[in-house]
Design brief:
Elements lengths: L3 E9 L2 E9 L9 E9 L2 H8 L15 E9 L9 E5 L14 E4 L4 E3 L6 H23 L9 E3 L5 H12 L4 E5 L5 H7 L1 E6 L1 H4 L10 E6 L3 H9 L1 E9 L13 H6 L2 E4 L7 H14 L2 H6 L1 E5 L3 H9 L6 E5 L2
Parallel strand pairs: 8-9, 8-11, 9-10, 11-12, 12-13, 14-15
Antiparallel strand pairs: 1-2, 3-4, 3-6, 3-15, 4-5, 5-7
Helix pairs in contact: 1-10, 2-3, 2-8
The chain binds NADPH dihydro-nicotinamide-adenine-dinucleotide phosphate.
NADPH dihydro-nicotinamide-adenine-dinucleotide phosphate binds next to helix 1, helix 2 and helix 3.
Amino acid sequence: MGTFKAIRIDKSEAGYQAAFVYFDDADLMDGDVTVRVTHSTVNYKDGLAVTGKSPVVRRFPMIPGIDFAGIVEESSNPAWKPGDEVILNGWGVGETHLGGYAQKARVKGDWLVPVPKGLTRAQAMAIGTAGYTAMLSLLALEQHGLTPAMGPAIVTGASGGVGSIAVALLAKAGWRVIASTGRPQEADWLKALGAAEVIDRNELSAPGRPLGKERWAAGVDSVGSHTLANLLAQTGYGGAVAACGLAQGMDLPASVAPFILRGVSLLGVDSVMCPKPRRMAAWARLASDLDADKLASLTTTAPFASALDSARSILEGAIRGRVVLEIG
Ligand code: NDP
């Protein structure tokens, strides 16, 4: 008899299945910290894991959920004690290590970061891996030396999780933000988040020319494929695009023209294995820079029971902003 509720993914001759089960503590994987999970979220990768559309899950059975917030229950790691409020993003959780769609998780203490002062656990998960990745993208652009004085910044997939938080963060950092979306009905909401201009994503999603008119100095791209190629082709001299996603596709049908003729840079952003000091810096900046009202405006809160439906909808681009799951 299991002791806590979880979603379990199994793969067998019967096919690929994700279902609610009761899971036993004894079946949790090795780790030096046990966390009572209170909140998780719905990320694009969770959609891939739950549906099996992409081979994200590499161990069966698996509990999906690439991020969670919760309260430490037990710890043999000196950095953590019972009662501490913690966040986990990535490290293969929900892919190779049992994840956040469960009332309990056992992980390595080194993977955890504290919930930053000023944020609740629910807000930390409203940000979640998507928002933390948006901040890693902004940090990458800044570290490259880009400033708002150089021109506008474009955000693709703007109504999604990474995109909506990137819009708010770039605007707060002083950028003139161009939001690219396939959902024109969300234009007013994107402007309220900080977009100065909203464009139709169809302008960018078809095969384009190797070089185009210079339209922006910087970009945050969660879409990939032709969109990323077009972003690069329309980035101004010395500009850069932070690439973090593949909602349109994993391919990059681009030419070297923007790199060799305009000195444009493509900055890769990975949240999963990102070293701890950079994570801490990203979370600290999220706590100080992300406006709580804007965060609330892009967040929907849903019960744990709806996790499978939400995870399927995110792959259809049907989720606006972020979904927080109340787990415990
Ligand atoms: P969402 O589904 O919330 O956002 C993706 C958005 O992309 C959609 O809302 C939609 O925005 C747009 N989009 C969807 N399909 C297409 C398409 N076919 N062509 C063009 N645009 C499309 O997902 P997340 O924000 O959670 O994640 C976004 C991407 O970033 C994913 O690929 C995810 O795997 C990746 N990611 C990567 C991380 C990393 O560590 N590098 C971490 C987190 C996420 P709109 O309706 O506005 O057009």
